Amino acid sequence: MEIAGPRVHFLSYQSAEQWAWAGAVTLAAELRRALEQRPRARLLLSGGSTPGPVYQALSRAPLEWSRIDVALVDERWLRPDDPDSNSHLVHATLLQDKAAAARFETLTRTGRSVEEAVAAANLHANQVPDAVVLGMGGDGHTASLFPGMIGLEQALASPTAYVAVDATGCPGSGPWPRRISLTPAGLEPSRMRLLLIRGEDKRRLLERAMDGTDPLELPIRLAFTTPGARLRVHWCP
């Protein structure tokens, strides 16, 4: 099923396999288009348990991966090789097969302070993302911007692409409150936005989010209220 609107283009798939391949094909097409127009393409990825199958399917795409820069939407304040980091997920799922030739930028690095990490992320962000993959938590968070988070209003209004955040007290952050996150300013210039979600609960939550515009209540709203590209949503049960 496909539902198109001015802010959101919603596509639903009957199976997880269809959903994963559709996401991979969508991203591959955007990256191929970018490589036809520019020397390099840039892809920003989210972590979590949902997008892995899409990344695995995308890893087999016949692209010039050596010309593609892969970076992160957000990261927990962990070493890049920590099994709970988003970097580890990307290595295990995307940076395999043909995509092993891509250039990967981690947000954290051993011996680098959080201030240095954010500064490096903002320097890399001068290259406009061709595609940004977003996720959505059961609390309505996206990237590492959580409802009720300390400094959420400041993060949403930040002029920089990345900020350090403190999600202490936010259940959705689990045991990792210290994080680095993309902001609306970092999302705005992106040429394509793709939200990957699964399950009836997430669908209902997205519908609720689309009934309002305040990202302080549900940060996922920044995905479709931030000026720029229309949000594409891929959903399956």
Keywords:
single chain; 237 residues; alpha/beta; Rossmann fold; globular
In DSSP terms (H or I, runs of 4 or more residues), the helix count works out at: 8
- Reading off the top of the CATH hierarchy, the class is best stated as Alpha Beta
CATH topology: Rossmann fold
Q: For the residues shown, what is the average pLDDT? A: 96
* Strand arrangement across the biggest beta sheet: 1-2-11-10-7-3-4-6
Order of helices and strands: EEHEHEEHEHEHEEHEHHE
Pathway: Carbohydrate degradation; pentose phosphate pathway; D-ribulose 5-phosphate from D-glucose 6-phosphate (oxidative stage): step 2/3
Protein name: 6-phosphogluconolactonase
Catalytic activity: 6-phospho-D-glucono-1,5-lactone + H2O = 6-phospho-D-gluconate + H(+)
Organism: Luteimonas soli
Structural description of this entry:
- The chain has 237 residues and is an alpha/beta fold.
- The chain has a single domain (2-236), classed as Rossmann fold, CATH 3.40.50.1360.
- It has eight helices and eleven strands.
- Strands 1-2-11-10-7-3-4-6 form an eight-stranded mixed β-sheet, with helices on both faces. Strands 5-9-8 form a three-stranded antiparallel β-sheet.
- Strand 3 (41-45), helix 2 (52-58) and strand 4 (68-72) form a beta-alpha-beta unit.
- Helix 1 crosses helix 2.
- The radius of gyration is 16 Å and the shape is globular.
- The model has no long low-confidence stretch (mean pLDDT 96).
